[in-house]
């Protein structure tokens, strides 16, 4: 007969380990991030092949919204995992890159805006390589970076709305470009 340890004898989980699922793969936040990744090619298909702008806006808005949701659920359910820490920024970067390329092809955004964001991404990638070379890991996620990502993911559906709906161009365009440039500067 096994004896269950008394409450005082049970190990306490504190600090970083309290909110981590560690190496767990099958978690709800990881599933959400994986579904976000599947949304990237769907978005590009809707935008560039089917030219179904309303459906593309919906996919993009869901991708942007679930960016926040997966992190919130991970922290709330204590399911933060190493895989999730990799999937979430990967999904962010792929959504931003796919959106920029698709929008540039469709003339929703000028190539200069795309070039500026791509240059920033390459600079970050180079910085990470230098940090790794000298034995450092990636810097911790900072609220400024999360805010910039949020602004860009909020701006993109609004910019597509401005391009797709003639009556929405003035207002949606101003709001979308304000958010996009703010996100670029913060990034």
From TrEMBL:
Annotated Gene Ontology cellular component terms: membrane
Ribosomal protein recorded as keyword: no
Transmembrane feature ranges: 111-131, 143-162, 168-186
Subcellular location as annotated: Membrane
UniProt cross-references to InterPro entries, sorted A to Z: CDP-alcohol_PTase-I, CDP-OH_P_trans, CDP-OH_PTrfase_TM_dom, CDP_ALCOHOL_P_TRANSF_CS, Phosphatidylglycerol_P_synth
GO-annotated molecular function: CDP-diacylglycerol-glycerol-3-phosphate 3-phosphatidyltransferase activity
Record flagged with keyword Transmembrane: yes
Protein keywords: Lipid biosynthesis, Lipid metabolism, Membrane, Phospholipid biosynthesis, Phospholipid metabolism, Transferase, Transmembrane, Transmembrane helix
Record membrane topology: Multi-pass membrane protein
UniProt-listed GO biological process terms: glycerophospholipid biosynthetic process
Pfam families, sorted: CDP-OH_P_transf (PF01066)
Gene3D superfamilies: 1.20.120.1760
Recorded family membership: Belongs to the CDP-alcohol phosphatidyltransferase class-I family.
Protein name per Swiss-Prot or TrEMBL: CDP-diacylglycerol--glycerol-3-phosphate 3-phosphatidyltransferase
Organism lineage: Bacteria, Bacillati, Actinomycetota, Actinomycetes, Micromonosporales
């Amino acid at each position: 007969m096994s004896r269950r340890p008394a409450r005082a004898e049970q190990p306490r989980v504190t600090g970083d380990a309290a909110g981590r699922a560690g190496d767990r793969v099958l978690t709800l936040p990881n599933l959400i991030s994986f579904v976000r990744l599947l949304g990237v090619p769907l978005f590009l298909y809707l935008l560039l092949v089917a030219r179904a702008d309303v459906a593309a806006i919906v996919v993009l808005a869901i991708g942007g919204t679930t960016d926040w949701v997966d992190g919130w659920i991970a922290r709330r359910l204590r399911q933060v995992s190493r895989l999730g820490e990799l999937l979430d920024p990967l999904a962010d970067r792929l959504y931003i890159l796919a959106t920029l390329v698709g929008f540039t092809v469709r003339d929703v955004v000028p190539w200069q805006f795309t070039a500026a964001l791509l240059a920033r991404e390459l600079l970050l990638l180079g910085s990470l390589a230098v940090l790794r070379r000298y034995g450092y890991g990636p810097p911790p996620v900072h609220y400024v970076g999360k805010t910039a990502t949020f602004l860009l993911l909020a701006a993109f559906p609004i910019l597509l709305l401005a391009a797709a709906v003639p009556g929405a161009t003035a207002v949606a365009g101003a709001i979308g470009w304000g958010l996009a440039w703010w996100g670029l500067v913060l990034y």
